[in-house]
Hints:
The complex is a heterodimer.
Chain A: H1 2-11, H2 13-32, H3 40-110, E1 120-128, E2 137-139, E3 152-157, E4 160-170, E5 175-179, E6 186-191, E7 197-202, H4 204-207, E8 210-216, E9 228-231, E10 243-251, E11 258-265, E12 274-278, H5 280-283
Chain B: H1 3-23, H2 38-50, H3 52-69, H4 76-90, H5 101-125, H6 137-158
Amino acid sequence: MPGLFEGFVARHRKGVTLAVLVIVSLTFLLVSNRSIVIKPKEVGLSFVGFFQKGFTGFFRWFGDTAGSIRQLNAARDELDAARAKLQDMDRVTREIVELRRQNAMLRGQLDLSQSLPPDRIAAEVIARDTDNLFSTITINKGARQGVRPGMPVVAYQGDMEGLVGKVLIAGPGASQILPLYDPQCLVSARLDASRDEGLVKGEGKDHGTLLLQYVKKTAKDAIQYGDLVVTSGLGGLYPKGINLGRVRDIRALAYETSLEIEVEPIINFDRLEYVFLIDAESSGGPPGTQAGPPGTTGAPGQ
Amino acid sequence: MNRDGRITLFTIFALALCVLLQSTLLNRVAIKGVRPDLALIVLIFVSMRRGSMVGQVSGFAAGIFEDLMNVSPLGFHSLMRTLIGYLYGIFAGNVFIDPFLMPMVLTVIATILKGLLAGIVSAIFGIASSGFITFTGRLWIEVAYNGVLAPFLFALLGLFRIFKQADKEGA
Lengths: 302, 171
């Protein structure tokens, strides 16, 4: 009998190796992934659903392409109007930059930065996910530097602070961040102008935008394109008032009781080099209060 | 250690290097955030040259390495790369690989296969991901990117004597 088994293994060496490797991989998946679907009906549904999503996505792509051509003409007219507006904005921006510079200088003179609590850990982005399937960002600071899972992460781009995401895994010397655009990242948010609350959800790297959901339909008239969306501080994970993005599109679907608002993130994730991790515990303040200004730990901002 | 063992070790090293490059340097050449999957192209090349055994074992090892680096559950990439390594290895020595067209075709098919496998595994195991779990634009960008790079990478890998074509028995 052992001879028969050995003979079989010798004859089907490649097949046996494949079976072993696949079983090992599946065992790893079962052990490391708690949310396995084990009911046959659900497995079937998920399996079929995958193909359904694929078909829908494929045909939607064609639809979107046709729609894009129509929108191109409208966009051309809008572009002319926007150019005129941009010239005006340029002048305003120059004034703001000048005011900020003056403000920073005066703050420096007053030595305000010395009195700020060291509640931010500066870190450098050292890697992204190895594959295009997932979207984590790896930074060069870990548990040894005080990084803990769940810590909010911000960055500075174009003189604005914006939320990057939260710490997902904190290793000893490096950590992984779940970025804002990941569909798993949910942030309690508020429209800065109208003060309406909602929930911001990532739409994946494909879209490059975020989705603000659960905003009452009655608030539609109070919301303008370009309105700033900030964290509301509810839930306690993210401090209040961190910029998330600007309103890009407002959709009031007939079958929904709330608005669907497309938000363009403040942060350009492709240009992310340095980030700051907010340590609400070391600042002593309860979650829901905005932490101090940047630059207190000496790393460069963006 | 026999020749296949040495090749497998060398391939695992090459694949690990590709995975590291993908997570760091290749971000600079990403198109809409999508990077080419160099490890997949190397795996296809080695499997087509050296057969299923080398393909699946090195694919499994590189996949485990990738899973340890990523947020993906352990076993996710190893399963995909094992299957792709095995499948392509079946055709080792049976397909004529010209310098340009076949590397492109093989890589395009493998990338779509990877997307399909990722979707099926994610659906069954309930794995959340922001990538091409459905057949969205990101997958097609990667398909094109990998396809364009494949002939160049095949040509480069062909310079290594260690990857010399296996005879049919060894495959």
